């Protein structure tokens, strides 16, 4: 990649590049079910959903193996509105977001940990109805 040294220094470019790549997640997968929508008292909208991604490879015997990973996703505001309007079970989507780890206590008082992707962009594939 080249850049014009008159506009930006090499150090500024490196800082910009590192900041745009820090904690960035990009996935393409299929929705497990329609997003769960929560309308908060503040007027904000929250969408919770999950997508499955598949990785296929051949084992030592040459047999095809497919691993499916499920990813928990959370979208806020306008992104949540888009998820509510257009996303449905089985649809293929691409998302961009960032990883977030949090913990909570369940009803029995046990501490639970969860990793989620906070979605900033959604791109839908295929025909939209």
Verbal overview:
With 129 residues, this protein is an alpha+beta fold. It has one domain: Nucleic acid-binding proteins (OB fold (Dihydrolipoamide Acetyltransferase, E2P)). 17% of the residues lie in helices and 51% in strands. It is built from two helices and six strands, in the order H-E-E-E-E-H-E-E. It has helices at residues 10-21, 77-86; strands at residues 25-31, 36-39, 45-58, 64-76, 92-105, 111-124. The protein is globular.
List keywords for this structure.
single chain; 129 residues; OB fold (Dihydrolipoamide Acetyltransferase, E2P); alpha+beta; 51% strand; five-stranded mixed β-barrel
Question: Summary?
Answer:
The chain is α+β, with helices and mostly antiparallel strands and 129 residues long.
Question: Which SSEs are present, and which pair or pack?
Answer:
Blueprint lengths: L9 H12 L3 E7 L4 E4 L5 E14 L5 E13 H10 L5 E14 L5 E14 L5
Parallel strand pairs: 4-6
Antiparallel strand pairs: 1-3, 1-5, 2-3, 3-4, 5-6
Strand content: over 45%
Estimated helix fraction:
10-25%
Class from secondary-structure proportions = alpha+beta
Record the strand order, biggest sheet: 1-3-4-6-5
CATH superfamily: Nucleic acid-binding proteins
């Amino acid at each position: 990649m080249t850049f014009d040294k008159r506009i930006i220094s090499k150090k500024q470019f490196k800082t910009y590049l590192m900041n745009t790549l820090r904690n960035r997640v990009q996935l393409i997968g299929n929705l497990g079910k329609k997003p769960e929508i929560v309308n908060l008292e503040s007027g904000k909208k929250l969408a919770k959903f999950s997508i499955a991604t598949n990785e296929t490879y051949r084992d030592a015997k040459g047999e095809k193996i497919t691993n499916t990973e499920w990813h928990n996703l959370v979208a806020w505001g306008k992104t949540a509105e888009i998820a509510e309007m257009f996303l449905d079970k089985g649809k293929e989507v691409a998302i961009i977001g960032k990883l977030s780890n949090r913990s909570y206590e369940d009803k029995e008082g046990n501490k639970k940990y969860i990793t989620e992707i906070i979605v900033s962009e959604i791109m839908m594939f295929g025909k939209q109805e």
